[in-house]
Amino acid sequence: MPDLSKLSEAILKGDVKTAVEITKEALAAKVDPQEILDKYMIPAMDEVGRKFECNELFVPELLLTARVMKSALELVRPLLAASGAEPAGRVVIGTVKGDLHDIGKNLVASMLEGGGFEVTDLGVDVSPEKFVESAKSKNANLIAMSALLTTTMPSMKSVIAELNKQGVRGQVKVIIGGAPVTQQYADEIGADGYSDNANGAVGLARTLIKK
Ligand code: B1M
Question: Which atom from ligand 1 is nearest to the alpha carbon of 93?
């Protein structure tokens, strides 16, 4: 059984090789993938964020840590997805316009897929028009939006405005999430739901689609 604190250290150091090795060892030792993610990977990224805020880390290091996180996540994600269940609905997901953060969004997309949803991932920097056009062309029941920057959150409101403008708001539920997003913000902009984590997003999507 590997020392998983070394996984957090490897993420912080930007050390892809070690992070991948430890993650593989942990999975081979049947450590719960959700535990690897919640106890070691996400806290490491939070620490990266804290250091970035205190000017102890800068953008190049941030990029490096994100690369490590992504590599380790590639190994964990399929197993997280496999723990999901029943078929559910069609989801269009993306990170909102102006925002390039995709680690959390990818996690939510994987969990939704694992939960039996048909997921169309539009990637990052997605315009309101693209969200709405894709929801229409895919006949989606749900639009799922992620934002990591306070400056890009307002784009979530623009997507809802675009749904209203195109007369399709009643046909599609909207859920939102991402570090700066809150339930209060969801209520404020008229989103149907908010979750602060990927698992919660799946439950939320199921509940909303059943309604
Ligand atoms: Co950026 N960044 N970043 N960054 N970055 C943050 C977000 C920041 C908080 C760091 C800080 O200052 N402490 C800060 C935002 C400040 C603010 O707006 N208040 C910040 C900044 C300022 C910036 C730049 C402006 C820096 C610069 O260039 N000067 C720049 C902006 C670029 C842009 O987007 N236009 C930038 C760039 C980057 C990188 C490219 C270097 C890289 C992203 C790489 C990538 O994603 N491919 C990066 C990273 C890695 C971070 C931090 C360190 C980590 C984010 C992350 O991946 N977390 C971040 C600090 C932090 O959050 N601790 C930071 C792990 C991920 C699993 O969590 O995405 O929150 P998260 O997802 C969670 C939940 O939020 C939830 O589920 C997930 C799992 O449980 N969730 C949902 C997410 N989406 C959901 C949707 C749902 C439901 C739940 O329903 C639809």
Answer: 91
